[in-house]
Design goal:
Shape: globular
Strand order of the largest sheet: 2-1-3-4
Largest sheet: 4 strands, antiparallel
Distance between the termini: 31 Å
Length: about 130
């Protein structure tokens, strides 16, 4: 089992409830991934390589992603990325900062473990700042 987050391109509803309700349709939207997703992928894998690029004997100690190739997890409006639980505290803050710096919104289904609520990480005005 992995710790999964979704990363979406704007626009996303500003209202939290509406944004969560729109998430499945964003994930299922068909089309070519936008260039911003390649930027995100490249930034993430520069720090945390795709498990497909690691030697077999290094995957368990150096790999953070739950599957690969990581690029296969990116679609037209959303990417759903899975991390191994033992590395979430290290990887998630970097993922959120990197995605937000590119104008992307991160949805975290698992955050309720500490707050009792799902979390959505977005910089102020991020939802309107960049179009795919």
């Amino acid at each position: 089992m992995s710790y999964n987050v979704a990363i979406c391109t704007p626009p996303v509803p500003a209202d939290d409830k509406a944004a969560w309700e729109a998430l499945d349709s964003l994930i299922n939207e068909q089309g070519t991934p936008p260039p911003v997703f390649r930027e995100l992928h490249d930034a993430l894998t520069a720090r945390y390589p795709c498990i497909c690029t690691l030697p077999d004997d290094k995957v368990d100690e150096e790999g953070v992603w739950s599957d690969g190739p990581l690029w296969n997890d990116f679609s037209h409006r959303a990417a759903v990325l899975g991390m191994i639980w033992s590395r979430v505290d290290e990887v998630l803050p970097f993922l959120v900062r990197t995605a937000n710096s590119l104008g992307l919104i991160v949805f975290d289904w698992v955050a309720p473990r500490s707050t009792g609520r799902k979390a959505r990480y977005v910089l102020p005005n991020c939802a309107a700042s960049r179009k795919s």
